């Protein structure tokens, strides 16, 4: 018997067992079936995307562009969101701006809440953002070039300035910000059986001090609780590093694999996990969750380590039966059987919306990829039009178990 039904049965029997009225709550508010649309979108809203090739990006560039509502790429991002209208969405590669009034709130005010090409404005009363590892200097020579420069490949996560490639959650439903769990600083070496990073001769790529100092998350891992009409769901958000841009040691492939594994172990309630506030363990059973993000890993394409994303796709607590697809992606790669499921222009499925098997029923899903030549294809013509990734969405019906 599912835990939720067992709990209700025990509460109903308690007065008979004790011979007196129970002081415990014997009924709860009626369950209200609700359907929500959850999405993930790598929006390429990082300063490097607005910088001429060969120049150093200005860390304040996104802040400047959000101060008014006239930047064409950001307007297109807003239009895509206004067309799909997700209830909850994770935005990857949205530079972290600590002053929300000049960051995520400016995006909402000057772009989302303004009609784009006649579309209905979109209001998200709730948002969450927090610092990430990208661009934050470390004291180590992480990229192995013999120099601990503190930036780029030697930052805690690759980035040319703190906050590059950050994350933002937007929601129509209340976010319990006090209960958010972050794993930004979790040390990689604490993961039992972490992926080995070896030189071609079999020796360790990192010395002991560097290995013990490395953080696992290239950006951060967030468990964001959201209240949907009295029912709590956990949005598990991350953006693992691409498994490329390294050398024969494949350090980024190892990190990508283990960043994905962190969520698999979180679903297994692994005791070794400790968040930034010191709380140990993972996510309790019979809990609704949705894993979202650009995971830079495909089940059948690309250069991620074997089985990296399958740690989530095949997890018993994950329902991966609904696979978002698009006709635009199919026509973009007509000779590739995986084309309909691609979520990036460079032909791979790397962006995911993965609901829990408990408490959700997938209804329908899709990838926003207009067919080339149609009017809306202007929104995804290239990375300067919007992004080299596509928005991925899924409608989910909340169920009692």
TrEMBL record:
One of its GO terms (molecular function) is endonuclease activity. Gene3D superfamilies: Endonuclease/exonuclease/phosphatase. Residues 39-389 form the Endonuclease/exonuclease/phosphatase domain. Keywords: Endonuclease, Exonuclease, Hydrolase, Nuclease, Signal. Residues 315-337 are annotated as: Disordered. Residues 1-23 form the signal peptide. The keyword Cell inner membrane does not apply. This is Endonuclease/exonuclease/phosphatase. It comes from Ferrimonas balearica (strain DSM 9799 / CCM 4581 / KCTC 23876 / PAT).
